[in-house]
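Fold these two proteins, one after the other.
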Amino acid sequence: MATIEGTFEKSSSLKVAIVIARFNDLITNKLLSGCLDCLSRHGIDVSESSNQIDVAWVPGSFELPIISQELARTGKYEVLITLGAVIRGDTPHFDVVVSEASKGIATVSRETGVPIIFGVLTTDTMQQALERAGIKNNLGWSYALQALEMGSLMKAVT
């Protein structure tokens, strides 16, 4: 029986794109910071002149799938990370945005064969979002780890 797993040792050569929503940027900027910190500590060049990582900003989480699709189709990236924060309000808008963003991102990943990490916080309150973006822990770090693992796993199976 073969066991195939992603590793973190062989991930320093990965090419990564991060697609990040501007809406709720108090949260998404913190997620980006955690994400870049993790990638850097695992050997990815995150400097301004890096050819290993690109960051694309979109207006909100609803727009994450379309830009993820275009970036994945370029063939330049081995893994994408989407970052967003959707906080429940008094209208059904939350449900629509979360549903379409998650379905769209999953569809793009399946159709292109490029792993896309779903780093969209979906919380009931701003406090919950802040806790997940740095007050208690920074899930941006976790999303980057998932990207490293999936990027190396895809190399192992292809």
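Now the second one:
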Amino acid sequence: MSRHSRRMRILCLCATTLLMAGSALASEAGGHADGQLKDFLYRLLDFGITFGALYFLLRGPLKRALSARRQRVAEALEQARQMQASAERRFAACRQQLADADAQIAQLTADLKAESALQCQRIEEQARKMADDIRSEATRSAAREIEAARKQLHQEAVRLAMELAEQRLKQQIAPQDQARLVDEYLRKTGE
């Protein structure tokens, strides 16, 4: 506030006070009809001056206060609009995240089912392969066992045949034939 406007306000306030005091004195002094008109005019003049002085004195601060109030209300409204827009954006983002989460859950479920089916198929294939390997090994092992048993039976048959042949020879060969065979054998080996 400038010095000039402050001085003017003080001057107006003093003039208003003097006029009010004058009108108060005038209203006490008169008692007749002409005095009533004067009193009414003084009061009217007093009201006009008081109203003018108050208007002059309060116009600036009141205007600034109302302007500041208007600005605060406008700022509050703008801030409320921004907060509402921000809340709506966050709400839309949350709604989108929920929709995305539902889609992700469905995708994960489908992926897990597919992976589970593949895993079951792999396990079945491995089990079949292991069963085939076990069968093949059992067949080879049985073939080896059969071959070993054949060889053993063959050896046993040869041994039994030799024993039988030896017994028959012992029964059929006389001691003279035996001496002759030994002599022949010694001659052949001695040569």
